[in-house]
Automatic annotation (TrEMBL):
One of its GO terms (molecular function) is protein phosphatase regulator activity. The lineage of its organism: Eukaryota, Fungi, Dikarya, Ascomycota, Pezizomycotina. GO terms for cellular component: protein phosphatase type 2A complex. Residues 113-122 have a biased composition (Polar residues). Residues 48-122 are annotated as: Disordered. One of its GO terms (biological process) is signal transduction. This is Uncharacterized protein. It holds the Pfam family B56. It comes from Madurella mycetomatis. Residues 86-112 have a biased composition (Basic and acidic residues). It comes from the Eukaryota.
Length: 122
């Protein structure tokens, strides 16, 4: 499928196809240097962050990676706790409303499609 699309592209506009394939080849050849440049920039950003932390009087963690690799706070925030409690209360109220259904014995048609009844019939 990809081959057919590339062949069609080459037949429709050979000059643009050559330009795109040449650019792709150059991009692939320079991938290692781009990665090295990216690493140098991350190191410079990390160093700058550490200097700012030191200037503000806090110790640096030395995390040398992209943002988003920080250790999450294990303590949930207050609004998260409130939301969880609210959700639990809603769930409990739903269980109370369904209490009469749990106490009754399932009817014959309710039990016919259950996995347990199929196994017990064997």
């Amino acid at each position: 499928m990809v081959y057919n699309a590339m062949k069609l592209f080459m037949e429709i506009n050979p000059q643009l196809f050559d330009d795109c394939s040449h650019e792709y080849t150059e991009q692939q050849n320079s991938a290692a240097s781009r990665e090295a440049s990216r690493e140098r920039r991350w190191a410079a950003i990390t160093e700058q962050a550490n200097r700012r932390k030191a200037a503000n009087g806090t110790a640096g963690t030395g995390a040398g990676g992209p943002p988003g690799r920080t250790i999450p706070n294990p303590m949930p925030r207050l609004d998260e706790v409130d939301a969880a409690e609210d959700n639990q209360k809603r769930l409990d109220s739903l269980k109370l409303q369904d209490g009469d259904r749990r106490d009754r014995r399932p009817e014959v048609h309710d039990r016919q499609n259950s996995v347990g009844s199929a196994r017990s019939q064997r």
